[in-house]
Every structure is written in C-alpha cells, then in structure tokens.
C-alpha cells in the first residue's frame, strides 16, 4: 500500500505491506534505528514515538494507519549540537545506563508533558477538576509503560522533574 507519513518534519512516501508495523517501517524502510524494538508486544515502551503529538507504542500500530500523520522519533528530538532540554536533563541526571530504553523514555516524556499541559488525568490524578500537579507519583504512573532494565528510574524521575520545573 502506498502511504505518506511525515517523519521528523519530512514527508516520506512508502510502499508497504499492509502488515508492516510503524516500528518496522521506521527502522527498516526509513533507516531510523533510534526507535528500539524491545518486546515487540507493547509491554516495554522502547518503541515509543509521537504521532501527531501523542505517544504510542509503534510496535502495536500498522504503518498504513498513519497515512498523512506526523511522526516524531528520537531523531527528530534535538540534534547532537542542539539537544532538547529533556535530552540535556537525561545527560545531566545520568538517567540512562545501557541507553536502550532512552529513546522511548524521552519520546514518552515529551508526550507525557503535553498530556499534563493539556490537563489529561491519569490513574494517579486525585482531583479531576483541578489543574494537574506533576507529583512524583503522577510522573511514575504516567511513565509506567516505559521499562528500564538497568533500573535508572530515580535518575529518569529526576530528569523529568527538572524539565517540568523549568517549564521546558
């Protein structure tokens, strides 16, 4: 099937088997290897990308479903010379060890911060009528779909907290 997806700001025309996941299209067809294939079952979050600003597990989504959508992968978040504030915070807080989950963690953080800004409640949100307060419990709940085998959770939390407090 012919599909056009805007990836990291660039329209990309693809001719795909309709069974191709968004993750495989990104990695194999577009050679964007930053998005990781972890469990391939939507359980680890290593494949998290943003679609139209909303975070999804790209291993659970067919690429042809995203015809006309805007997809942001880790390659579209900052550059080596101009890191995004969340990337800077991950470095500053040492929020990774092996780094395998880091692209998904960063994309998920960006989506999560937008959810909070848009006042989307989570399971941890206590008052649904009030503006969401980004507590540690709220961050942990919202990031619970992103696993880290190295257990860098305290550093990830610190990185997210620093960016949220800075308003970046």
Automatic annotation (TrEMBL):
InterPro entries: 2Fe-2S-bd, 2Fe-2S-bd_dom_sf, 2Fe-2S_ferredoxin-like_sf, 2Fe-2S_ferredoxin-type, 2Fe2S_fd_BS, Aldehyde_Oxdr_Iron-Sulfur, Beta-grasp_dom_sf. CDD domains: fer2. Residues 1-77 form the 2Fe-2S ferredoxin-type domain. The keyword Metal-binding applies. Keywords: Iron, Metal-binding, Oxidoreductase. The keyword Oxidoreductase applies. PANTHER family: ALDEHYDE OXIDOREDUCTASE IRON-SULFUR-BINDING SUBUNIT PAOA, OXIDOREDUCTASE, IRON-SULPHUR BINDING SUBUNIT-RELATED-RELATED. This is 2Fe-2S iron-sulfur cluster-binding protein.
């Amino acid at each position: 099937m012919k599909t056009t997806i805007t990836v990291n700001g660039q329209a990309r025309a693809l001719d795909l088997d309709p069974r191709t996941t968004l993750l495989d299209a990104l990695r194999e067809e577009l050679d964007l290897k930053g998005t990781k294939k972890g469990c391939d079952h939507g359980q680890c979050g290593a494949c998290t990308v943003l679609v139209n600003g909303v975070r999804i597990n790209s291993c659970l989504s067919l690429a042809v479903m995203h015809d006309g959508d805007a997809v942001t992968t880790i390659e579209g978040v900052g550059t080596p010379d101009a890191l995004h504030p969340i990337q800077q915070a991950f470095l500053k807080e040492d929020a990774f060890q092996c780094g395998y989950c880091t692209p998904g963690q960063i994309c998920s953080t960006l989506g999560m911060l937008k959810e909070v800004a848009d006042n989307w409640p989570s399971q941890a949100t206590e008052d649904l009528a009030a503006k969401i307060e980004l507590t540690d419990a709220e961050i942990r709940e919202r990031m619970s779909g992103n696993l880290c085998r190295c257990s860098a959770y305290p550093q990830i939390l610190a990185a997210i907290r620093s960016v949220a407090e800075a308003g970046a």
